Amino acid sequence: MADLKPALVSLLRAAYPHPSFPDAPYERTADTILGQLDEDLWHRLALEHGLANLDTEALADPHSEAASAYLRSIEDAEFFAFVRGVTVVTLYNDHEVWDLLGYEGASYDKGGYVERGFDDLDWLPDPRIEEYDGPDALQPVADADQPTAKA
Amino acid sequence: MSTSQFGTPIENDTEAVVVVGSGAGGGTVAYELTRRGVPCVVLEAGAWLKPEDYENDEWAAFNQMAWLDQRTTSGSWRVSRDFPNLPAWIVKAVGGSTTHWSGATPRFHEHEFKTRTYYGDVEGANLLDWPITLAEMEPYYDKAEIAMGSTHRHGRPPLPANNNYKVFANGAEKVGYKYYATGPYATNAEPYDGRPASIQDGFNFQGDKSTAKWSTAVREIPRAVESGKCDLRTQCQAVQVTHDAQGRANAVLYVDSEGTLHRQAASVVCVAGNSIESPRLLLMSASGLHPDGLANSSGQVGRNYMRHLTASAYARFDRDVRMYRGETMAGIIADEARLDTSRGFVGGYYMETLSLGVPFLAAFVDPGTWGREFTEVMDAYARTAGMWIVGEDMPQESNRVTLNAGVLDPFGLPAPDVHFDDHPNDVAMREHAWGRADLLYESVGADATHRTPPYPSTHNLGTCRMSERPEDGVVGRYGEAHDVPGLFVSDGSQMTTGASANPTLTIVALAIRQAEHIADRLGKGEL
C-alpha cells in the first residue's frame, strides 16, 4: 500500500487551515484516520482511492484560493466526508491544538479557576450580579396580549 | 461495569413503589417517598458514576455518560442531518441528566401554564392549558429551590461574575435589558447542604467533580439509599409496565446487564426515563386492554414532543475573554422571557451564558463546516464569548416518539424514532433571538457573531402530557395516567407545554408534589 499519509496531511492542512499550527497535530490526526481503516472496508476503499487521486498540487498552499476551490469541488466525495467527520473530533481534541488556541482544559486538580483567572477580564466594567431591584418589575405579558384585551 | 444493587434489598415479589429512572423526576420521587417511609425500588439503566469518576474532558465524559443506545431521527430539523442517531444529548447514569445539566433554575410564569388561553389558536400547534396553576406550584417551587440550593433565592448568595458573564451582562446593560443576573443557578456560591462552594472549575456538562452543583446523584439518591427504604438497581433497564385484570399497574419488567429479564411487583409505578424513553416504555407495554400502548386511549403518548427553541451565539472580540474559565453557565437574561406578540411570535426566551471547550465548539458551532470560515471561529477561541438561547417551542402532534421496529437495540427491542419539524413560531423566535444576541455582543465591541444551530436536544419534554380531560392527554394533575390507576409519569414528559424556562426546577417541583400525593394516598390505602 502506498504511503497515504503525506496526501492526507496536505488535505487536512487545506481543509482546516490554521496559520499558527505546525504539522504535528495534523500528522497525529492523519495517524488516527489511517488507524481506523482496518475497522471498515468501505472507508478503506473510499479513502485509499480518494487519496491516491488527490490533486496535491492544488493543495500545495493550504491557505490559497486554489486549494479552497479544489476542496469545494470534492466536498461531497465520500472519502472527504469521512475525513472531516474524524478530523473535527480528533484535531480539536489534540492537546497541542488546545495550547495553540488558548484552551487550558481541566482545572479541578489545580483548584479550579477561582484563583486562576476566572474573572480576570479587565476591558469591561464589573457588572451587577444581583437581580434587578429597581422600580420596573418584569411584565410577563404585554398589555395587548392579555386574553381580556383580545376578547 | 455490570448490574449492581445499592441500599436495602426488596424482594421481587414484594409490591413496592417502582421508580423507573433516577434523574430529576425519578431521583426526587424516590427520595421524597423513602424519607416518608415508603419502600421504593429504583431501576436505573445506567451505572452509578461518582464524582471521582467524572472526566473533565469533553469527549471522554460524553463517551462515559451520554445515552448512546441506538435511536433514529426523522423530520426536517437539522439535528436529523448532522446527528441522525443522536436526537438527544442526555445522560445514562444514576442522576440521569441532572449529572450534566447546567444548573439554571428559573420558574415558569403564570401565563405559561395557560398557553391555549393566552396564545389562542396557533395554527399547527396543539396548545393546551395545564390542569394546574402557578399558585398551586409556588410552594413546591420553594421546596425545589431550597433542595437544589438555587442562588439568589431563600437567602442563597449570587455566584460571582466570570469572564463570560462580564461580556454578557455589560452587553445586556448596553442594549437596555434590566433583568439580568448570575442566577438563579443550582450551584453553590458558598457551602450549602453539605456540599462545597464552586471553585469555578467548569465542566458542568461532564458531571461536577467538586459537587458544588446540585444533582440527584449527589443529593437525593445517596440519601434515599441511606434511608433503609430504597433498593437501587443500576444497569437495569425497564422494558415493560404490566397491569392486572382490573387495569391497575402491577409490575415492571426489566433487563439486567447480562440480558436477563426480571419482574418487580409494584403497588405504584413512577416512570421517569426522560421524554424519549418514557413514552417508548409505554408504547412497548401495549396489551389487549391498551392496544395502542399503555395509557394511550388519547393517542397522545409520544406526541407533542418538545425540545425547547434553543440556539447559541458565539461572539469574537479583539481581546481575551476565556469563557471556559469558571462555571459553564452562570448568567441569565429574562427580559425576552415574556409574551409580547409585537415581536412576531408567541412565547418567550431566556439568554444564558454558555461556554464550550475547544473539542465541543469544533463539533457543535456549525456542524459539518470546514475551511477558513470554520477555522476563523476556532482561531478566535480565547477571544470568544458565548450564550445559549432557550425558549418555548410549540407542541405539535406530528412531533413524536414512535417505535422503529426496523432498528433494534442490543436487547432486541425496537429503537425509538424521534420525529421533529420546527414550527414557524419556533423559527421566528430563533431569528429574533439571534438578532438580539448580535446587538448585545456588538454593543460591547464584537468583531463578529456566529449563529449556532440547536445541539442534540437536552430539554426533552411533553410526550406524556398532563391534561384535565382524558381525551387531551396522558396523565392528570398529579401525573397519574388517566387510563391506568397506579401508573404515574414523573419526568418532563408530563409537561403540557414547555414554557421558556429551563425545565429541571419544574420537574423537581412536580416530583415533590407528586410524591407527597402518592404518600398521602398510600397512607389512606387508596393506592
UniProtKB/TrEMBL annotation, chain A:
<protein>
    <recommendedName>
        <fullName>Gluconate 2-dehydrogenase subunit 3 family protein</fullName>
    </recommendedName>
</protein>
<feature type="region of interest" description="Disordered">
    <location>
        <begin position="127"/>
        <end position="151"/>
    </location>
</feature>
Automatic annotation (TrEMBL), chain B:
<dbReference type="InterPro" id="IPR007867">
    <property type="entry name" value="GMC_OxRtase_C"/>
</dbReference>
<feature type="domain" description="Glucose-methanol-choline oxidoreductase C-terminal">
    <location>
        <begin position="395"/>
        <end position="511"/>
    </location>
</feature>
<keyword id="KW-0285">Flavoprotein</keyword>
<protein>
    <submittedName>
        <fullName>2-keto-gluconate dehydrogenase</fullName>
    </submittedName>
</protein>
<dbReference type="Pfam" id="PF00732">
    <property type="entry name" value="GMC_oxred_N"/>
</dbReference>
<keyword id="KW-0274">FAD</keyword>
<dbReference type="Pfam" id="PF05199">
    <property type="entry name" value="GMC_oxred_C"/>
</dbReference>
<comment type="similarity">
    <text>Belongs to the GMC oxidoreductase family.</text>
</comment>
<feature type="domain" description="Glucose-methanol-choline oxidoreductase N-terminal">
    <location>
        <begin position="92"/>
        <end position="309"/>
    </location>
</feature>
<dbReference type="GO" id="GO:0050660">
    <property type="term" value="F:flavin adenine dinucleotide binding"/>
</dbReference>
<keyword id="KW-0560">Oxidoreductase</keyword>
<dbReference type="GO" id="GO:0016614">
    <property type="term" value="F:oxidoreductase activity, acting on CH-OH group of donors"/>
</dbReference>
<dbReference type="InterPro" id="IPR000172">
    <property type="entry name" value="GMC_OxRdtase_N"/>
</dbReference>
<dbReference type="InterPro" id="IPR036188">
    <property type="entry name" value="FAD/NAD-bd_sf"/>
</dbReference>
